[in-house]
Structures are given as structure tokens and as C-alpha cells.
Write a structure and sequence with these properties.
- This protein has about 170 residues and is an alpha+beta fold.
- The chain has a single domain (about 5-165), classed as Aminopeptidase.
- Helix content is about 20%, strand content about 30%.
- The protein has four helices and eight strands.
- It has helices at about 25, 45-55, 110-120, 135-145, and strands spanning about 5-10, 30-35, 60-65, 70-80, 95-100, 130-135, 150-155, 165.
- A hairpin with a 6-residue loop joins β7 and β8 (about 165).
- The chain is globular, with a radius of gyration of 15 Å.
């Protein structure tokens, strides 16, 4: 069956009013990129991954980037409903892949970024979805800490990359 995933969801009724750690913005800069076909190799996971997201989302994905004066510290992909997530509603958003570089982990960066994403994207009846490997305890704890509720289990088709719920 492959990797077992945990799927989480948040909507306006679940949205927490927790304050994000805005002190992080004293040390890092946050930007949201909407890559064009000509800038796919600049941030995130690289040209081919970005081309994949560009094509399947018809160019409607974004990459949130946190960086210090010299390095990218973290990136998070923000994707609208695409074929990979058949359980999502038309206006929903999928969060991920997310990655905090090793030298910057355990500083609250992932928590801060998820809180920002919730405050910035969770509105007008839109649901936010995120998933992680069932064995990734650190991600699961952070996802739940910021207010996401466990929706169920899922698996990913190795060929099509479609996420199938297995509740």
C-alpha cells in the first residue's frame, strides 16, 4: 500500500485566534511568490517540481518563502484544488510540501508559517488541507498545535500521485 498519510483539515469554524510569533519577522523576511513559467527554478524544490505544480494548477500555485539575509530558511507550497486532491472543494487550498532547512529547525518557524497561512488563506468558507507521513511525529504535532483537525488516513498512488482517503 505504500506510505500511510495523515490528512488534516481546518475551516473558519476551527480557525484558532492564536497570535503568531511575529518576533520571527525581526530575524527573517517573509514573501509569497507566484512563479511564472520563466521563474520556476528560483525557489522551493527546484525547476521540475515547480513545473509540475505550475502545470497541474494552471499556474495558480504560490510558494511562501521565509529567508534571512543570505539563505532560504523555509518554504511552503500553497496549491488550489487539483486532480491530486479529489476530496477537496473547488475553493479549498492544499498546503505543502513544506520544508524548514535543518539549521533552522526547532525555532518555531513551521508553527509561525502555518499560523500565517491560516490567517492569510482561511476565509470565505475555504477549507485548508495538509497531510504528512503518519510516522512524522514532529509535523503532526505542529499541524495539530495550530488548529488543524485530523480528518483521516490516506494513501498516495505512486503512478498518478492522487491522494485517496482511507477513513
Amino acid at each position: 500500500m505504500g506510505v500511510k498519510l495523515l490528512v488534516f483539515k481546518i475551516d473558519n469554524s476551527d480557525k484558532m485566534n492564536s497570535e503568531s510569533n511575529s518576533d520571527l519577522l525581526l530575524h527573517y523576511k517573509l514573501s509569497i511568490h507566484k512563479p511564472s513559467i520563466f521563474s520556476l527554478n528560483k525557489i522551493g524544490q527546484g525547476f521540475f517540481v515547480n513545473l509540475y505544480w505550475f502545470l497541474i494548477s494552471f499556474g495558480k500555485f504560490e510558494i511562501l518563502q521565509l529567508f534571512d539575509s543570505q539563505n532560504t530558511v523555509h518554504y511552503t507550497y500553497i496549491t488550489p484544488k487539483v486532480y491530486r486532491f479529489p476530496f477537496m472543494n473547488k475553493t479549498d487550498i492544499q498546503i505543502g510540501p513544506c520544508y524548514t532547512y535543518e539549521n533552522y529547525q526547532k525555532r518555531g518557524i513551521y508553527t509561525f508559517v502555518l499560523q500565517f497561512v491560516i490567517s492569510h488563506y482561511c476565509h470565505d468558507g475555504r477549507n485548508l488541507w495538509i497531510y504528512c507521513n503518519e510516522k512524522n511525529e514532529a509535523s503532526r504535532k505542529t499541524i495539530e498545535k495550530v488548529g488543524f483537525k485530523k480528518y483521516g488516513f490516506a494513501s498516495i498512488n505512486k503512478l498518478t500521485k492522487v491522494i485517496k482517503l482511507r477513513n
